[in-house]
Protein backbone atom coordinates (compact mmCIF):
# COMPACT_ATOMS: atom_id res chain seq x y z
CA UNK A 1 0.00 0.00 0.00
CA UNK A 2 1.24 3.48 -0.86
CA UNK A 3 0.27 5.80 1.95
CA UNK A 4 0.02 9.56 2.28
CA UNK A 5 -0.10 11.19 5.69
CA UNK A 6 -2.28 14.24 6.19
CA UNK A 7 -1.76 16.43 9.27
CA UNK A 8 -3.37 19.71 10.18
CA UNK A 9 -2.62 22.16 12.93
CA UNK A 10 -5.70 23.73 14.46
CA UNK A 11 -6.25 26.19 17.24
CA UNK A 12 -7.37 23.57 19.78
CA UNK A 13 -3.97 21.96 19.48
CA UNK A 14 -2.39 24.83 21.35
CA UNK A 15 -4.29 23.82 24.47
CA UNK A 16 -3.99 20.07 24.00
CA UNK A 17 -0.34 20.07 23.09
CA UNK A 18 -1.20 18.18 19.97
CA UNK A 19 1.02 19.76 17.39
CA UNK A 20 1.61 18.58 13.88
CA UNK A 21 4.81 16.82 15.04
CA UNK A 22 2.84 14.59 17.36
CA UNK A 23 0.23 13.85 14.69
CA UNK A 24 3.02 13.15 12.25
CA UNK A 25 4.79 10.73 14.59
CA UNK A 26 1.62 8.78 15.39
CA UNK A 27 0.72 8.51 11.71
CA UNK A 28 4.21 7.39 10.74
CA UNK A 29 4.25 4.63 13.34
CA UNK A 30 0.83 3.49 12.14
CA UNK A 31 2.26 3.19 8.60
CA UNK A 32 5.21 1.24 9.95
CA UNK A 33 3.05 -1.16 11.94
CA UNK A 34 0.91 -1.82 8.87
CA UNK A 35 3.91 -2.08 6.55
CA UNK A 36 2.72 0.70 4.23
CA UNK A 37 5.10 2.67 2.04
CA UNK A 38 5.04 6.33 2.86
CA UNK A 39 4.80 8.32 -0.37
CA UNK A 40 4.21 11.83 0.86
CA UNK A 41 3.29 13.93 3.88
CA UNK A 42 0.69 16.69 3.50
CA UNK A 43 0.76 19.40 6.16
CA UNK A 44 -1.66 22.28 6.56
CA UNK A 45 -1.55 24.88 9.23
CA UNK A 46 -4.82 26.60 9.87
CA UNK A 47 -5.99 28.02 13.07
CA UNK A 48 -9.60 27.05 12.89
CA UNK A 49 -11.87 24.50 11.34
CA UNK A 50 -14.25 27.37 10.61
CA UNK A 51 -11.83 29.84 9.20
CA UNK A 52 -12.53 28.80 5.64
CA UNK A 53 -8.94 29.43 4.71
CA UNK A 54 -7.67 27.43 1.83
CA UNK A 55 -5.72 24.30 2.61
CA UNK A 56 -3.10 23.94 -0.13
CA UNK A 57 -1.81 20.57 1.10
CA UNK A 58 -5.29 19.15 1.34
CA UNK A 59 -5.89 20.18 -2.26
CA UNK A 60 -2.64 18.49 -3.24
CA UNK A 61 -3.73 15.34 -1.37
CA UNK A 62 -7.01 15.23 -3.31
CA UNK A 63 -5.12 15.69 -6.58
CA UNK A 64 -2.74 12.84 -5.73
CA UNK A 65 -5.65 10.55 -4.84
CA UNK A 66 -7.24 11.45 -8.16
CA UNK A 67 -3.98 10.63 -9.98
CA UNK A 68 -3.79 7.33 -8.08
CA UNK A 69 -0.42 8.27 -6.64
CA UNK A 70 -1.51 6.98 -3.24
CA UNK A 71 -4.06 4.38 -2.27
CA UNK A 72 -4.13 4.95 1.48
CA UNK A 73 -4.78 8.16 3.41
CA UNK A 74 -3.52 8.27 7.00
CA UNK A 75 -4.63 10.97 9.42
CA UNK A 76 -4.64 11.41 13.17
CA UNK A 77 -8.43 11.77 13.48
CA UNK A 78 -11.31 12.18 11.02
CA UNK A 79 -11.83 15.84 11.92
CA UNK A 80 -8.28 16.59 10.80
CA UNK A 81 -9.29 15.74 7.26
CA UNK A 82 -12.59 17.60 7.05
CA UNK A 83 -13.78 20.86 8.26
CA UNK A 84 -17.36 20.68 7.00
CA UNK A 85 -19.94 18.08 5.95
CA UNK A 86 -19.60 19.48 2.44
CA UNK A 87 -15.90 18.64 2.33
CA UNK A 88 -16.58 15.21 3.79
CA UNK A 89 -19.14 14.39 1.10
CA UNK A 90 -16.73 15.39 -1.67
CA UNK A 91 -14.01 13.33 -0.02
CA UNK A 92 -16.23 10.27 0.35
CA UNK A 93 -17.19 10.52 -3.29
CA UNK A 94 -13.53 10.72 -4.32
CA UNK A 95 -12.24 7.79 -2.27
CA UNK A 96 -15.15 5.64 -3.23
CA UNK A 97 -14.60 6.34 -6.91
CA UNK A 98 -10.82 5.78 -6.69
CA UNK A 99 -10.97 2.89 -4.24
CA UNK A 100 -8.72 4.70 -1.77
CA UNK A 101 -8.58 3.51 1.83
CA UNK A 102 -8.57 5.73 4.91
CA UNK A 103 -7.27 4.98 8.35
CA UNK A 104 -6.94 7.31 11.32
CA UNK A 105 -4.91 6.83 14.47
CA UNK A 106 -7.82 7.74 16.67
CA UNK A 107 -10.81 6.17 14.91
CA UNK A 108 -9.32 3.23 13.03
CA UNK A 109 -10.04 2.44 9.42
CA UNK A 110 -13.00 3.67 7.44
CA UNK A 111 -14.75 1.16 5.39
CA UNK A 112 -16.46 3.43 2.93
CA UNK A 113 -17.22 0.64 0.50
CA UNK A 114 -20.38 -0.10 2.46
CA UNK A 115 -23.24 2.24 3.22
CA UNK A 116 -22.74 1.50 6.89
CA UNK A 117 -19.12 2.55 6.68
CA UNK A 118 -20.04 5.78 4.93
CA UNK A 119 -22.66 6.49 7.57
CA UNK A 120 -20.07 6.02 10.29
CA UNK A 121 -17.72 8.40 8.51
CA UNK A 122 -20.48 11.01 8.23
CA UNK A 123 -21.38 10.62 11.86
CA UNK A 124 -17.79 11.06 12.94
CA UNK A 125 -17.64 14.28 10.98
CA UNK A 126 -20.94 15.51 12.36
CA UNK A 127 -19.94 14.71 15.92
CA UNK A 128 -16.65 16.53 15.76
CA UNK A 129 -18.31 19.55 14.21
CA UNK A 130 -21.06 19.61 16.82
CA UNK A 131 -18.44 19.38 19.52
CA UNK A 132 -16.60 22.33 18.16
CA UNK A 133 -19.78 24.39 17.92
CA UNK A 134 -20.81 23.51 21.43
CA UNK A 135 -17.49 24.64 22.84
CA UNK A 136 -18.05 28.04 21.25
CA UNK A 137 -21.58 28.37 22.57
CA UNK A 138 -20.57 27.17 25.99
CA UNK A 139 -17.82 29.72 26.30
CA UNK A 140 -19.85 32.75 25.25
CA UNK A 141 -22.92 31.68 27.22
CA UNK A 142 -20.85 31.09 30.34
CA UNK A 143 -19.28 34.53 29.91
CA UNK A 144 -22.65 36.16 29.51
CA UNK A 145 -24.12 34.41 32.53
CA UNK A 146 -21.14 35.27 34.68
CA UNK A 147 -21.47 38.93 33.77
CA UNK A 148 -25.19 38.88 34.46
CA UNK A 149 -24.35 37.62 37.93
CA UNK A 150 -22.04 40.60 38.36
CA UNK A 151 -18.79 38.66 37.93
CA UNK A 152 -15.76 39.96 36.08
CA UNK A 153 -14.61 38.35 32.85
CA UNK A 154 -11.41 39.31 31.09
CA UNK A 155 -8.03 40.58 32.18
CA UNK A 156 -7.98 42.22 35.57
CA UNK A 157 -7.01 45.90 35.27
CA UNK A 158 -4.22 47.62 37.15
CA UNK A 159 -5.53 48.52 40.61
CA UNK A 160 -7.32 45.23 41.17
CA UNK A 161 -6.00 41.73 41.74
CA UNK A 162 -7.48 38.25 41.68
CA UNK A 163 -9.04 37.11 44.94
CA UNK A 164 -9.79 33.58 46.09
CA UNK A 165 -13.24 33.91 44.50
CA UNK A 166 -13.28 33.51 40.74
CA UNK A 167 -14.63 36.49 38.84
CA UNK A 168 -14.41 38.66 41.94
CA UNK A 169 -11.21 40.68 41.88
CA UNK A 170 -10.35 42.82 44.88
CA UNK A 171 -8.49 46.13 45.22
CA UNK A 172 -4.74 45.66 45.13
CA UNK A 173 -3.38 47.39 48.24
CA UNK A 174 -0.36 48.79 46.37
CA UNK A 175 -2.03 49.77 43.15
CA UNK A 176 -5.48 50.94 44.28
CA UNK A 177 -4.20 54.24 45.76
CA UNK A 178 -2.44 54.99 42.46
CA UNK A 179 -5.61 54.35 40.50
CA UNK A 180 -7.58 56.57 42.89
CA UNK A 181 -5.07 59.32 42.32
CA UNK A 182 -5.36 58.90 38.54
CA UNK A 183 -9.15 59.20 38.71
CA UNK A 184 -8.82 62.21 40.97
CA UNK A 185 -6.58 63.96 38.52
CA UNK A 186 -8.76 63.09 35.52
CA UNK A 187 -11.80 64.46 37.32
CA UNK A 188 -9.85 67.64 38.06
CA UNK A 189 -9.17 67.92 34.35
CA UNK A 190 -5.47 67.05 34.38
CA UNK A 191 -3.96 66.14 31.02
CA UNK A 192 -3.43 62.43 30.48
CA UNK A 193 0.05 63.09 29.13
CA UNK A 194 0.97 64.87 32.33
CA UNK A 195 -0.42 62.07 34.49
CA UNK A 196 1.56 59.58 32.41
CA UNK A 197 4.71 61.65 32.74
CA UNK A 198 4.39 61.84 36.54
CA UNK A 199 3.73 58.12 36.84
CA UNK A 200 6.77 57.36 34.71
CA UNK A 201 8.86 59.67 36.87
CA UNK A 202 7.63 57.89 40.01
CA UNK A 203 8.95 54.48 38.90
CA UNK A 204 5.50 52.91 39.11
CA UNK A 205 5.16 50.56 36.18
CA UNK A 206 1.95 49.65 34.37
CA UNK A 207 0.95 46.03 34.26
CA UNK A 208 1.76 45.73 30.59
CA UNK A 209 4.46 47.55 28.72
CA UNK A 210 7.27 49.57 30.20
CA UNK A 211 5.90 53.05 30.39
CA UNK A 212 2.61 54.83 30.94
CA UNK A 213 1.10 56.56 27.95
CA UNK A 214 -1.95 58.74 27.69
CA UNK A 215 -3.71 55.97 25.77
CA UNK A 216 -2.73 53.45 28.44
CA UNK A 217 -4.35 55.62 31.09
CA UNK A 218 -7.40 56.21 28.93
CA UNK A 219 -7.75 52.45 28.55
CA UNK A 220 -7.27 51.84 32.25
CA UNK A 221 -9.99 54.31 33.18
CA UNK A 222 -12.33 52.70 30.66
CA UNK A 223 -12.36 49.44 32.63
CA UNK A 224 -15.72 49.28 34.46
CA UNK A 225 -14.25 46.88 37.03
CA UNK A 226 -12.45 49.82 38.62
CA UNK A 227 -15.82 51.39 39.37
CA UNK A 228 -17.26 48.11 40.67
CA UNK A 229 -19.30 47.65 37.50
CA UNK A 230 -19.65 45.05 34.79
CA UNK A 231 -20.84 45.58 31.26
CA UNK A 232 -23.71 43.32 30.21
CA UNK A 233 -24.45 43.96 26.57
CA UNK A 234 -24.46 47.74 26.39
CA UNK A 235 -25.57 48.19 29.98
CA UNK A 236 -23.49 48.76 33.03
CA UNK A 237 -24.58 47.05 36.19
CA UNK A 238 -23.25 46.77 39.71
CA UNK A 239 -20.68 44.02 40.16
CA UNK A 240 -20.60 41.70 43.15
CA UNK A 241 -17.06 42.86 43.92
CA UNK A 242 -15.74 46.25 44.98
CA UNK A 243 -13.98 48.50 42.55
CA UNK A 244 -11.27 50.97 43.43
CA UNK A 245 -13.39 54.09 43.05
CA UNK A 246 -17.11 54.72 43.54
CA UNK A 247 -19.21 53.90 40.50
CA UNK A 248 -20.32 57.57 40.16
CA UNK A 249 -16.69 58.65 40.04
CA UNK A 250 -15.95 56.05 37.41
CA UNK A 251 -18.86 57.28 35.29
CA UNK A 252 -17.82 60.91 35.66
CA UNK A 253 -14.23 60.13 34.70
CA UNK A 254 -15.35 58.23 31.65
CA UNK A 255 -17.66 61.06 30.64
CA UNK A 256 -14.83 63.55 31.14
CA UNK A 257 -12.58 61.58 28.83
CA UNK A 258 -15.26 61.24 26.20
CA UNK A 259 -15.64 64.99 26.15
CA UNK A 260 -11.97 65.44 25.43
CA UNK A 261 -10.73 65.76 21.90
CA UNK A 262 -10.16 62.31 20.57
CA UNK A 263 -7.93 62.91 17.65
CA UNK A 264 -8.27 62.68 13.96
CA UNK A 265 -8.18 58.93 13.45
CA UNK A 266 -11.12 58.85 11.11
CA UNK A 267 -10.83 62.30 9.66
CA UNK A 268 -9.21 62.53 6.27
CA UNK A 269 -5.80 64.05 6.53
CA UNK A 270 -6.21 66.86 4.04
CA UNK A 271 -9.23 68.11 5.94
CA UNK A 272 -7.31 68.36 9.17
CA UNK A 273 -7.28 71.79 10.65
CA UNK A 274 -4.79 72.84 13.27
CA UNK A 275 -7.27 73.20 16.10
CA UNK A 276 -10.43 71.36 15.04
CA UNK A 277 -11.34 68.87 17.76
CA UNK A 278 -8.87 70.47 20.15
CA UNK A 279 -10.76 73.64 21.00
CA UNK A 280 -13.66 73.42 23.38
CA UNK A 281 -16.32 75.75 24.67
CA UNK A 282 -15.36 77.19 28.06
CA UNK A 283 -18.96 77.37 29.11
CA UNK A 284 -20.50 74.19 27.70
CA UNK A 285 -17.50 71.98 27.10
CA UNK A 286 -18.51 71.10 23.55
CA UNK A 287 -15.69 70.51 21.12
CA UNK A 288 -15.19 72.89 18.19
CA UNK A 289 -14.42 71.49 14.77
CA UNK A 290 -13.00 73.06 11.68
CA UNK A 291 -16.07 74.43 9.96
CA UNK A 292 -17.38 72.74 6.85
CA UNK A 293 -17.88 74.68 3.62
CA UNK A 294 -21.15 76.04 4.96
CA UNK A 295 -19.34 77.63 7.88
CA UNK A 296 -16.40 78.97 5.97
CA UNK A 297 -13.15 79.35 7.83
CA UNK A 298 -14.30 79.18 11.41
CA UNK A 299 -14.06 76.72 14.24
CA UNK A 300 -17.53 76.01 15.51
CA UNK A 301 -19.24 73.82 18.10
CA UNK A 302 -22.45 73.68 16.10
CA UNK A 303 -24.79 72.21 18.70
CA UNK A 304 -28.10 73.79 17.73
CA UNK A 305 -29.97 75.00 20.77
CA UNK A 306 -27.10 74.08 23.07
CA UNK A 307 -23.89 75.73 22.05
CA UNK A 308 -23.03 77.70 18.97
CA UNK A 309 -19.64 79.05 19.95
CA UNK A 310 -17.41 79.81 16.96
CA UNK A 311 -14.19 81.64 16.24
CA UNK A 312 -12.34 82.73 13.12
CA UNK A 313 -9.88 80.05 12.08
CA UNK A 314 -6.92 81.88 10.58
CA UNK A 315 -6.51 84.39 13.42
CA UNK A 316 -6.83 81.67 16.07
CA UNK A 317 -4.32 79.45 14.27
CA UNK A 318 -1.89 82.37 14.04
CA UNK A 319 -2.12 83.20 17.70
CA UNK A 320 -1.68 79.61 18.87
CA UNK A 321 1.21 79.10 16.46
CA UNK A 322 2.99 82.18 17.76
CA UNK A 323 2.52 81.10 21.36
CA UNK A 324 3.72 77.56 20.70
CA UNK A 325 6.80 78.61 18.79
CA UNK A 326 7.69 80.95 21.61
CA UNK A 327 7.15 78.13 24.10
CA UNK A 328 9.28 75.72 22.10
CA UNK A 329 12.09 78.26 22.07
CA UNK A 330 12.39 78.12 25.84
CA UNK A 331 15.29 76.12 27.29
CA UNK A 332 13.19 73.35 28.88
CA UNK A 333 11.23 72.57 25.69
CA UNK A 334 13.32 69.52 24.90
CA UNK A 335 12.33 67.95 28.21
CA UNK A 336 8.66 68.18 27.31
CA UNK A 337 9.14 65.53 24.70
CA UNK A 338 11.30 63.21 26.70
CA UNK A 339 8.50 61.06 27.96
CA UNK A 340 7.76 60.14 24.36
CA UNK A 341 11.29 59.22 23.49
CA UNK A 342 11.03 55.60 24.52
CA UNK A 343 9.72 54.31 21.23
CA UNK A 344 10.43 50.65 21.95
CA UNK A 345 7.64 50.59 24.52
CA UNK A 346 5.41 52.32 22.01
CA UNK A 347 6.30 49.89 19.26
CA UNK A 348 5.64 47.01 21.58
CA UNK A 349 2.24 48.35 22.49
CA UNK A 350 1.35 48.87 18.85
CA UNK A 351 2.47 45.31 18.11
CA UNK A 352 0.41 44.03 21.03
CA UNK A 353 -2.70 45.75 19.76
CA UNK A 354 -2.19 44.35 16.31
CA UNK A 355 -1.90 40.87 17.77
CA UNK A 356 -5.03 41.43 19.80
CA UNK A 357 -6.80 42.40 16.59
CA UNK A 358 -5.65 39.15 15.00
CA UNK A 359 -6.86 37.17 18.00
CA UNK A 360 -10.29 38.74 17.80
CA UNK A 361 -10.51 37.87 14.13
CA UNK A 362 -9.60 34.30 14.97
CA UNK A 363 -12.21 34.08 17.70
CA UNK A 364 -14.82 35.15 15.19
CA UNK A 365 -13.51 32.68 12.63
CA UNK A 366 -13.79 29.97 15.21
CA UNK A 367 -17.31 30.90 16.16
CA UNK A 368 -16.40 31.73 19.77
CA UNK A 369 -17.54 35.30 19.29
CA UNK A 370 -19.96 36.81 16.83
CA UNK A 371 -18.96 39.62 14.50
CA UNK A 372 -21.36 42.00 16.23
CA UNK A 373 -19.82 41.21 19.61
CA UNK A 374 -16.40 41.96 18.26
CA UNK A 375 -17.17 45.08 16.24
CA UNK A 376 -17.10 47.55 19.16
CA UNK A 377 -13.84 46.05 20.39
CA UNK A 378 -12.33 46.22 16.95
CA UNK A 379 -13.25 49.85 16.55
CA UNK A 380 -11.85 50.60 20.02
CA UNK A 381 -8.65 48.85 18.97
CA UNK A 382 -8.49 50.80 15.74
CA UNK A 383 -8.87 54.01 17.68
CA UNK A 384 -6.10 53.13 20.12
CA UNK A 385 -3.87 52.08 17.30
CA UNK A 386 -4.50 55.35 15.55
CA UNK A 387 -3.66 57.30 18.68
CA UNK A 388 -0.50 55.28 19.29
CA UNK A 389 0.63 55.76 15.75
CA UNK A 390 0.09 59.48 16.35
CA UNK A 391 2.37 59.19 19.40
CA UNK A 392 4.95 57.54 17.25
CA UNK A 393 4.92 60.45 14.83
CA UNK A 394 5.62 62.82 17.75
CA UNK A 395 8.28 60.53 19.12
CA UNK A 396 10.02 60.77 15.80
CA UNK A 397 10.62 64.47 16.31
CA UNK A 398 14.27 65.20 16.79
CA UNK A 399 14.60 67.24 19.99
CA UNK A 400 17.77 68.91 18.74
CA UNK A 401 15.63 70.74 16.24
CA UNK A 402 14.31 72.97 19.01
CA UNK A 403 17.05 75.49 18.42
CA UNK A 404 14.94 76.72 15.50
CA UNK A 405 11.35 76.22 16.66
CA UNK A 406 9.80 78.32 13.90
CA UNK A 407 11.40 76.31 11.15
CA UNK A 408 10.64 73.05 12.90
CA UNK A 409 6.99 73.97 13.30
CA UNK A 410 6.78 74.69 9.60
CA UNK A 411 8.38 71.34 8.81
CA UNK A 412 5.92 69.35 10.90
CA UNK A 413 2.78 67.85 9.43
CA UNK A 414 -0.54 69.05 10.78
CA UNK A 415 -0.87 65.76 12.66
CA UNK A 416 2.47 66.30 14.35
CA UNK A 417 1.58 69.89 15.21
CA UNK A 418 -1.67 68.71 16.73
CA UNK A 419 0.14 66.09 18.80
CA UNK A 420 2.45 68.81 20.06
CA UNK A 421 -0.56 70.96 20.98
CA UNK A 422 -2.08 68.06 22.89
CA UNK A 423 1.13 67.71 24.77
CA UNK A 424 1.52 71.40 25.52
CA UNK A 425 -2.02 72.30 26.50
CA UNK A 426 -4.40 70.87 29.04
CA UNK A 427 -7.10 72.88 27.45
CA UNK A 428 -7.71 75.21 24.57
CA UNK A 429 -10.93 76.91 25.61
CA UNK A 430 -13.04 79.35 23.63
CA UNK A 431 -15.41 81.79 25.33
CA UNK A 432 -18.72 82.76 23.81
CA UNK A 433 -19.06 86.26 22.47
CA UNK A 434 -21.35 88.09 24.93
CA UNK A 435 -24.66 87.34 23.24
CA UNK A 436 -23.76 83.70 22.55
CA UNK A 437 -23.31 83.79 18.79
CA UNK A 438 -20.81 85.25 16.38
CA UNK A 439 -17.30 84.13 15.63
CA UNK A 440 -15.40 87.42 15.83
CA UNK A 441 -11.78 86.89 16.81
CA UNK A 442 -10.46 88.44 19.96
CA UNK A 443 -7.51 87.01 21.90
CA UNK A 444 -9.49 87.56 25.09
CA UNK A 445 -11.89 84.90 23.95
CA UNK A 446 -9.27 82.18 24.27
CA UNK A 447 -8.76 80.52 27.61
CA UNK A 448 -5.53 78.56 27.34
CA UNK A 449 -4.32 76.18 29.99
CA UNK A 450 -0.76 75.08 29.54
CA UNK A 451 0.10 71.56 30.60
CA UNK A 452 3.59 72.65 31.60
CA UNK A 453 4.12 75.89 33.40
CA UNK A 454 7.45 77.51 33.03
ZN1 LIG B 1 -20.85 76.95 24.45
Distance between the termini: 85 Å
Please describe the biggest sheet, giving its number of strands, its sense, and whether it closes into a barrel.
6 strands, mixed
Average pLDDT, all residues: 78
Which oligomeric state applies? Answer: single chain
Helix count from the secondary structure assignment:
16
Strand line-up in the sheet with most strands: 13-12-11-10-14-15
Give the C-level CATH assignment of the largest domain.
Alpha Beta
List segments where confidence is low: pLDDT < 50 over at least 5 consecutive residues.
262-270
Short description:
The protein is α/β, with parallel strands linked by helices and 454 residues long. It has helices spanning 12-16, 20-34, 56-66, 78-81, 85-98, 115-148, 176-187, 192-201, 214-221, 247-259, 313-328, 333-336, 343-365, 371-395, 405-411, 414-424; strands spanning 2-9, 37-45, 72-75, 101-104, 108-110, 160-161, 170-171, 229-232, 235-238, 279-281, 287-290, 298-300, 310-312, 425-430, 446-450. A hairpin with an 8-residue loop joins strand 6 and strand 7.
What does this structure look like?
This protein is α/β, with parallel strands linked by helices and 454 residues long. It folds into 3 domains: 2-142, Resolvase, N-terminal catalytic domain (Rossmann fold), CATH 3.40.50; 160-266, Hect, E3 ligase catalytic domain fold; 279-339 and 393-450, no CATH class. 47% of the residues lie in helices and 14% in strands. It has helices spanning 12-16, 20-34, 56-66, 78-81, 85-98, 115-148, 176-187, 192-201, 214-221, 247-259, 313-328, 333-336, 343-365, 371-395, 405-411, 414-424, and strands at residues 2-9, 37-45, 72-75, 101-104, 108-110, 160-161, 170-171, 229-232, 235-238, 279-281, 287-290, 298-300, 310-312, 425-430, 446-450. It has a 6-stranded mixed beta sheet with strand order 13-12-11-10-14-15. Strands 2-1-3-4-5 form a 5-stranded mixed beta sheet, with helices on both faces. A two-stranded antiparallel sheet has the order 6-7. A hairpin with a 3-residue loop joins strand 4 (101-104) and strand 5 (108-110). Helix 5 runs antiparallel to helix 6 (115-148). The chain is elongated and about 90 Å long. Residues 262-270 have low confidence and may be disordered. The chain binds zinc ion. The site of zinc ion (ZN) has 8 residues, from loops.
Amino acid sequence: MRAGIYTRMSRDDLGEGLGVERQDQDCRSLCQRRGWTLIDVYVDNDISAYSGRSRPSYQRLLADIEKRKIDMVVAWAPERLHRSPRELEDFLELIERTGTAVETVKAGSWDVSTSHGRLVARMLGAVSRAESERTGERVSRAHQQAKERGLWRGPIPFGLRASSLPGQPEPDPDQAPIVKEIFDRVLRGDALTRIARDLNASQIRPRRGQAWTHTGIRRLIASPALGGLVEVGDELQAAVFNGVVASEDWRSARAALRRRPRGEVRRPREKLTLLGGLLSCVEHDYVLFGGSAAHGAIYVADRPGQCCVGIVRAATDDLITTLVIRRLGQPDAVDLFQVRQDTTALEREIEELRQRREELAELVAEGLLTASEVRPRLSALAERLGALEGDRSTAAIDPRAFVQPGAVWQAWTVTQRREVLRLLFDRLGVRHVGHRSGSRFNPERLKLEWAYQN
